[in-house]
Write a structure and sequence with these properties.
The complex is a heterodimer of chains A (about 90) and B (about 350).
Chain A: E1 11-14, E2 20-23, E3 43-45, H1 60-63, H2 76-82
Antiparallel strand pairs in A: 1-2, 2-3
Chain B: H1 3-8, E1 13-14, H2 22-31, H3 54-65, E2 70-71, H4 82-103, H5 109-112, H6 115-125, H7 131-137, H8 141-155, H9 160-163, H10 171-184, H11 194-204, H12 220-233, H13 239-251, H14 254-266, H15 271-302, H16 307-333
Parallel strand pairs in B: 1-2
Helix pairs in contact in B: 2-3, 3-4, 3-12, 4-16, 6-15, 6-16, 7-14, 8-11, 8-12, 10-15, 11-15, 12-16, 13-15, 13-16, 14-15
The chains are: A alpha+beta (about 90), B mainly alpha (about 350).
Chain lengths: ~90, ~350
């Protein structure tokens, strides 16, 4: 493989009703510092929490009817304003 | 033979199978001649059920195989012979008619405006015959081996039929297909190619993993499931259908492949046999998102005129797979082999 370049920027993309796909020059490391072996260049990480091979997706999200947007959910600015005390 | 040895045996060749009827007799006799030999269409019989016809599907399979592999004693230049293509077009016409009848009016205009969503709904509602569940819980060793033999027609050339679309797509759509295919081909490592993993499974099960070994015992409906992909892949104007096929192919892979792995574990096999299926559970969890959204939905947005064909390909896959699965289950429930001839069980 070629040397890391700008297009090796890591991207993490939530797919609608599905997993996070991670692309780029990333490493997957467990909480003890050990690298988790990657078998492929683009990896799907479980978003529904029900995969049997976590952190990787195994398609279980489809069986459990997992629903989530393929991007941001909600408007954080509105949520922040809603939490401000009245009169300020 | 070791896995390394198997990957080094790169040249693909099949023996010309025994013909099964008028269509394959006519074709195979011509193929043994020089490529400019005439391939007469006169007097060929009508076919009632093209999808399940052993003769028509074998003729079509061999006609397509000229693009994938050497056929013993057949001059390679037959691949693009106008006579061959004219004959093949007749086979394809009958195939197309049968597929159109199978899919019927399933593609709705509303779905063409939201292909990604339509594919999700299609897969969620799919209630085909419970083949993988049957094999997982109660399939016998012989039945599992038959399943592997059926699938070998595709899996020993896994991903190749979908690769035909690579030169026919552009930009991000092309990149999406390549993202999937790069993984299918082991990231460029022969020992990790999915076709190699399937050969490893066959070897672990005591089956002959040489390319094309079992074509002679495969019924028409099995060959049809592979011909479907070649039909779409080899014609640029069907690139939409090919993309739709691939999307649903990936989207209906994870759960069944986990079950096939479980079936082999229940039957006492270890990682050498289950490795193919285990890899697919993880790989296709990636591929299904890329195929459904980046590739299929992306192609529909880039070329809206293709949306209906994308969905046709998706529906055709599910309907044909359901018919194929039903064939296997019906035979097995009747205590019969699902192959054209029983294959002696290997000593493992």
């Amino acid at each position: 493989m070629s040397a890391p370049a700008e297009n090796d920027r890591v991207t993490i993309t939530p797919y609608r009703d599905g997993p996070y796909l991670v692309r780029g020059a990333f490493a997957l490391v467990d909480q003890h510092g050990n690298e988790i072996t990657l078998s492929r260049r683009t990896v799907a990480l479980c978003r529904c929490g029900r995969s049997r091979i976590r952190p990787f997706c195994d398609g279980t999200h489809r069986a459990v009817g997992f629903r989530a947007e393929g991007g941001s959910e909600g408007d954080l600015e509105l949520l922040r304003r809603a939490e401000e005390p009245l009169g300020e | 033979m070791s896995a390394v040895g198997a990957t080094r045996r790169c040249a693909r060749a099949i023996a010309l199978p025994e013909p099964r009827g008028a269509w394959s007799e006519r074709l195979f006799a011509a193929l043994l001649e020089e490529p400019h030999a005439q391939l007469d269409l006169a007097g060929l019989p009508a076919v009632d059920d093209a999808l399940g016809d052993d003769d028509l599907q074998l003729a079509l399979y061999v006609a397509y195989e000229l693009h994938y592999a050497a056929v013993e004693h057949v001059d390679e230049r037959w691949e693009w012979s106008p006579e061959l293509l004219r004959f093949r077009a007749e086979l394809e016409r009958r195939f197309d008619e049968a597929l159109a009848a199978l899919v019927g009016p399933a593609v709705r205009e509303a779905d063409t405006l939201d292909v990604g969503g339509a594919l999700q709904r299609l897969v969620a509602c799919d209630d085909g015959p419970p083949l993988s569940r049957y094999l997982e819980t109660q399939g016998t060793l012989e039945q599992m081996l038959e399943h592997v033999i059926h699938r070998s027609a595709y899996q020993l050339k896994e991903a190749d039929p979908h690769s035909w679309a690579v030169p026919r797509l552009a930009g991000e759509i092309k990149a999406a297909l390549l993202e999937i295919q790069f993984d299918e081909y082991g990231g460029g490592r022969a020992e990790r190619m999915h076709s190699t993993l399937f050969a490893n499974t066959m070897r672990a099960l005591g089956l002959d993993c040489a390319y094309g070994s079992y074509v002679g015992v495969l019924p028409g409906i099995t060959l049809a499931t592979v011909n479907l992909i070649s039909r779409f892949g080899l014609h640029r104007h069907r690139r939409g259908a090919l993309v739709g096929h691939l999307a649903v192919f990936e989207m209906t892979s994870c759960v069944p492949n986990r079950r096939y792995g479980n079936a082999l574990r229940r039957l006492g096999f270890g990682p050498r046999a289950t490795g193919f299926y285990d890899e697919h559970v993880e790989a296709d969890a990636v591929h299904e998102s890329v195929a459904a959204w980046d590739l299929a939905d992306g192609l529909a947005r880039a070329e809206p005129d293709l949306a209906a064909d994308i969905l046709f390909g998706a529906h055709a896959l599910l309907a044909l797979e359901a018919r194929w699965a039903q064939h296997l289950l019906s035979c097995w429930r009747a205590g019969e082999s699902s192959l054209r001839a029983r294959v002696p069980m290997p000593l493992t």
